[in-house]
Amino acid sequence: MDSSKNFFYLYSGLGGPLGFAYKEQLEGIDNSLGFRSSDCDLLDKNMTHDFFLKVQQNFPEKFITYVHLAAVSGGSHLSEKVPATLFVDNIQMAINSLNACQINGISRVILVLSTACYSPDINDPNESNLHMLPIKSSEYGYAYAKRMFEVLMRAYNKQYGMKISCVLVNGIIGANMNFNPEKSILPAALIKKFVDNKLNDSIIELWGDGTPIREYTSSKDLARAIKWCVLNQQSDTLLNIGNTSKISVQELAYLIADIIGIDRRRIKFTGQVSYGKQIQATNNAKFRALSNFLYSNITEAIKEAIESYTSTATVE
Which has fewest Cβ within 10 Å: 14, 80, 100, 117? Predict the structure, then answer.
């Protein structure tokens, strides 16, 4: 960030894998501050305003940028249980953050969306068709909230002259993932299940038939991409910044098992219907053309996620 000496980097979601990786990207930069809900509860309007005001007062000479990484999210099972919470809380956090930015003169903002925003019926999910067709998956509460971030971007830019842009990320893999069974996404759930059963020889049952196709990106790659977007992305734009390499659920399970040292023959797919889309696919050509971005192999990200879990887990 040689061209950004006068910037101050403020970002939420420090407790998640993307916030954790973004902190690493900003390592060595004094003018940065990541925070988590225990530092500032973005669901509390007054607390959010006061927190952002304090940052602005402490660094009045800096051009403050804010990246909204905070999210209430989890796997498809959580989406099935609390769709209203996922919709309302994600919208409320974004609104409180944008209001605090607008009032305190923080104009440069990046809102982080999810590729879950795209309808599964779209053949080529790209930035031009975000709002086309309904969202039918179990993630509809979370996905519609994130889709509305694009509306918030345009509205705040037009009314208040802000410089907000949006990026869309897909499945995140890396250190500091959430391994809580109620809130984890598929890779984290697989890592936990395999590590917890490494020392026995029982069959490990997995839901579904392993055929659904997914896209996953290293948290470090996404952090680098966001770092680029802060300085280069135009306001009022959307960019798909995730790695679009495809992997089936079975291939992902086998890859994680191989790294952990689980015999693939122990893995049995039950064939029972699982939640979620059959295929998750996006088009990141626009971002790659602008940035010449190169993605890393997710194998290293999986290893980092496994190490993150094993460093805190008690394996029986």
Answer: 80
